[in-house]
Amino acid sequence: MKREQWGSRTGFILAAVGSAIGLGNIWRFPYMAYENGGGAFFIPYLFAMLTAGIPFMIMEFSLGHKLRGAAPRAFAKVGAKFEWLGWFQVSIASVIAVYYVAIIGWAISYLGYSFTQNWGSDTNAFFFGEYLKLGDNTPTQLGSLQFHIAIPMAIAWAITFAAIFTGVKGGIERASKIMMPLLFLLVLVLISRVVFLPGALDGLNYLFQPDFSKILDAKVWSAAYGQIFFTLSVGFAIMIAYSSYLPEKSDINNNAFMTVLINCGFSITAGVLIFGVLGYMAQEQAKPLTEVVSAGVGLAFVTIPAAINLLPAPYILGPLFFLALVVAGLSSHISILEAVTSAIIDKLHWSRKKAATVVCGIGFVVSMAFATNGGLLLLDLIDYFINNVALLTSCLIELLIIGWLFKAADVRSYTNNISEFSVGKWFEICIRFLSPAMLAVILGTNLVNTFNEGYGGYAVSDLMLLGWGLVAAMFVLAVIINLASKTHTHQEA
């Protein structure tokens, strides 16, 4: 069976960028910069981009391109005993896919509300009380299904399913060619209006004003590396799957540089947008900026709607902002599910249409847990463990296997042979020493803190079941599939 291919290089880069640019660029990056020394944060951030982001992207693009398979098949070709890592990464992608779609569902709802500002003047009470209907729920006592959340989630699933069902060239590439230019355009239109608002420049000063004393703080460096790993979609099977569809003559180094630079450039652009809005809001409400700033879900669904209420022409700027969120979310969701679907196609030799239908069908059913009263709590807890424990562990193991067992030098000579420009010895140093060392520190700190302090004030039983238990179950499942593959191969032999 001939492997599908991207129709064009632009299509591949837009899809890779679409995967990397997600909701985190819009609501996580600006806050990280603000918390970690403003303009000074860009120094460790750019350093992390050069020493971790770009080398990791080159490594994953090379693996997919050379070994012509989704993550499990690629790692199995590195060594039969490593196939489990591919399945562990696929399970990370599967879990992210089912909760990420909930946030896209909220954004679709808010896109509807934004035309008339239905969220009213108390955006906090509206989001948590009226919209999510968050009562005395816990991550394990979810309450009832909320149809006003389930329906927009179903719309998001339908769009993702259509893209994956139609294939790499006809679906994913076509969707990326529409979505990514649209996203950039929306953000630029918003910025061109926001920067002229009173107070906007104060917000930007706040974001870019460097606090150089922070550069000596290890936490800031750890935050910069953490942000690079979160934002680039590396370590959970996506980029390996995407690059496995590249034509034989592909400029890997150039593609990797472009994907990482566009993604990081977009993060900084999104920061300009968010802090321009926050600066305006602070001035309108006569509060210091430190009182209006927030991150994550609160920023997108509480702070920004409150800011939209204050904007001139809110019925234009509001829909533009939420449309940008929906597009950023969908392009990432499509890539996450493609990582899962392509692994199933490789393993079970199913047709793309069958694999897409089964994967999206099961995903849709499971994701309904996040459309309940306690959906936000479940999402928060699982997201924390997936990102801070499972994903970083997966990245670290991948670096150790490729850097030390598979030989980073081989990856470098492979990619230099087919690329327009060559990467130097720094690539191997980053893959073998620098990135694993930084990741080990970040992961170690996360593990110690989570063991000692728990997370988010959740009950220990919830942490054991949905946090540690979930990660352990994913690991065990991956190992079982790996062992089953080995016995299967022996029987065939």
Q: What's this model, at a glance?
A:
By secondary structure, the chain is mostly helical.
Could you describe the 3D structure shown?
The chain is 77% helix and 0% strand. The protein has helices spanning 9-20, 23-27, 29-35, 42-67, 71-78, 83-113, 123-131, 147-165, 168-194, 200-208, 218-231, 238-243, 252-284, 289-292, 296-310, 314-348, 352-367, 375-405, 408-418, 426-453, 460-492. Helix 4 packs across helix 19 (408-418), helix 8 packs antiparallel against helix 17 and helix 18 (375-405) runs antiparallel to helix 20 (426-453). The longest helix has 35 residues, at 314-348. It is globular and about 70 Å long. The mean pLDDT is 93.
User: What's the alpha carbon Rg, rounded to whole Å?
Assistant: 22 Å
What is the chain-wise order of helices and strands? HHHHHHHHHHHHHHHHHHHHH
Oligomeric composition of the shown chains: single chain
Structural class: mainly alpha
Q: How many helices in DSSP terms?
A: 21
Main sheet summary: none
Give the strand tally: 0
End-to-end separation in angstroms reads 21 Å
Strand content: under 5%
Taking pLDDT < 50 over at least 5 consecutive residues as the criterion, the unreliable ranges are none
Measured as a percent range, the helix fraction is over 70%
- Rounded average pLDDT: 93
